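Structure first, sequence second, as always.
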């Protein structure tokens, strides 16, 4: 199957309100161009240097999403062009994104990453940390970031019930976030709309649990 054919199949399974991020990490530029020529405009990378290299070579109407764990000292390299940063998991990182966005005269959209998995290796904020971040003075003063939603990764397991439980938990945190007054609106001027959860193996379950954005790599580009 070609990349274009894979994309067509996946798109046919996605409801209209769900955004597809083509996870292009480690894939060569010709593969991305094939997806681009098939109409894909949103690509997700997990290493900033690789994303910068591809951004320089590829058409400028592509939206680049940073989906990996972000090191604070690397933010400056993607600040001029990144469309959405998925894995924001600390106030310190948010402060750096805000600072670099200001330098580039931009407002950068971010998703706060919530820790929902039963694995030590995953990053993210727990509910207490989320509440404390959102109510901090530092956060309320940030004018160059916009929190547009939440992101989470389920445990890597075949147990569908566990994955469903984790996705449902993230959806409930998301609904609570959307329902909370002043604080969120002061900082974002918008009600968060994006819930990024679900990858190649579990995206249909994620959508059933309320996901509005899925990150799919191997089902589009093939295995590594």
């Amino acid at each position: 199957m070609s990349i274009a054919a894979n994309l067509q199949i996946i798109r046919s399974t996605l409801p209209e309100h769900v955004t597809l991020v083509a996870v292009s990490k480690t894939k060569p530029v010709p593969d991305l161009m094939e997806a681009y020529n098939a109409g894909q405009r949103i690509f997700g990378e997990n290493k900033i240097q690789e994303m910068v290299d591809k951004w320089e070579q590829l058409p400028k109407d592509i939206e680049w999403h940073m989906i990996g764990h972000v090191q604070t000292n690397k933010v400056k390299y993607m600040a001029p062009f990144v469309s959405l940063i998925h894995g924001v998991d600390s106030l310190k990182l948010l402060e750096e994104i805000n600072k670099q966005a200001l330098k580039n005269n931009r407002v950068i959209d971010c998703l706060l990453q919530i820790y929902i998995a039963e694995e030590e290796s995953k990053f993210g904020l727990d509910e207490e940390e989320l509440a404390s971040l959102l109510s901090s003075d530092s956060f309320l003063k940030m004018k160059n970031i916009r929190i547009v939603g939440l992101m989470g990764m389920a445990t890597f397991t075949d147990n569908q019930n566990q994955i469903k439980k984790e996705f449902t938990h993230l959806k409930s945190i998301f609904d609570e976030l959307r329902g909370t007054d002043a604080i969120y609106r002061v900082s974002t001027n918008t009600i968060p709309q994006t819930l990024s959860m679900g990858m190649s193996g579990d995206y249909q379950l994620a959508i059933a649990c309320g996901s509005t954005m899925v990150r799919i790599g191997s089902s589009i580009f093939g295995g590594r």
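Margin note: The radius of gyration is 17 Å.
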